[in-house]
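Students often ask why inverse folding is considered easier than folding. One informal answer: many sequences map to the same fold, so there is more than one right answer. In these notes we will look at a single instance of the problem. The structure comes first.
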C-alpha cells in the first residue's frame, strides 16, 4: 500500500533548498535541491514545524530534530540509519566504523547513507570516509560535497580549510 503524500514544501537554507515531503503525521522525505529552486510554502503543520526546526538548527548546530518521520528502505538500510541517529551530540564516524558495528562492508554502509530518506534529520553527512569526506547524496558531485562541507563546518566538525 502506498501512502499518499500530503504536500511538498520547498524551504530555502544557506546550503540548499529543502524539498520536504510529508504524509499525515510524519515526514516521509527530505531532499537537497539546488539553491535556485523556487520555494513553496508549507501547507501542513508538520512541514511548517520542520521548517521552524531547521531554523533552530541553523541558529544552533547542536539542535536535535524532533519531528516524527518514516524510514522507507530495506532492513539493512534501516539498521544503518538507526546507527546514524546515534551521532549526537555532534560527532562524526567513518563508513567503516558503522560497517564493523553492523558486521557489514563500508561500501554497503555508504550506499545506505546515499539512500537516507531524511538527511539532516538523520545526519548522514556526519559519516565520512577513512581518509576524507567520502560521498554524499549517493555520489561525489561537486554540489553534493559542497552541501556536506557546509553542514560539517556549520557543526564544527570540519575546519574551514577543508
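Output (designed amino acids):
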Amino acid at each position: 500500500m502506498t501512502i499518499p503524500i500530503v504536500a511538498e514544501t520547498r524551504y530555502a537554507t544557506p546550503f540548499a533548498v529543502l524539498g520536504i515531503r510529508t504524509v499525515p503525521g510524519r515526514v516521509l522525505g527530505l531532499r537537497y535541491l539546488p539553491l535556485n529552486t523556487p520555494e513553496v510554502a508549507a501547507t501542513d503543520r508538520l512541514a511548517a514545524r520542520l521548517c521552524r526546526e531547521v531554523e533552530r538548527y541553523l541558529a544552533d548546530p547542536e539542535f536535535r530534530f524532533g519531528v516524527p518521520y518514516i524510514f522507507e528502505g530495506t532492513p539493512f538500510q534501516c539498521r544503518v540509519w538507526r546507527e546514524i541517529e546515534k551521532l549526537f551530540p555532534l560527532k562524526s564516524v567513518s563508513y567503516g566504523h558503522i560497517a564493523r558495528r553492523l558486521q557489514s562492508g563500508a561500501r554497503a554502509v555508504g550506499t545506505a547513507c546515499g539512500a537516507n530518506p531524511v538527511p539532516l534529520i538523520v545526519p548522514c553527512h556526519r559519516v565520512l570516509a577513512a581518509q576524507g569526506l567520502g560521498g554524499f547524496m549517493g555520489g561525489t558531485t561537486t554540489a553534493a560535497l559542497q552541501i556536506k562541507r557546509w553542514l560539517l563546518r556549520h557543526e564544527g566538525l570540519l575546519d574551514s580549510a577543508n
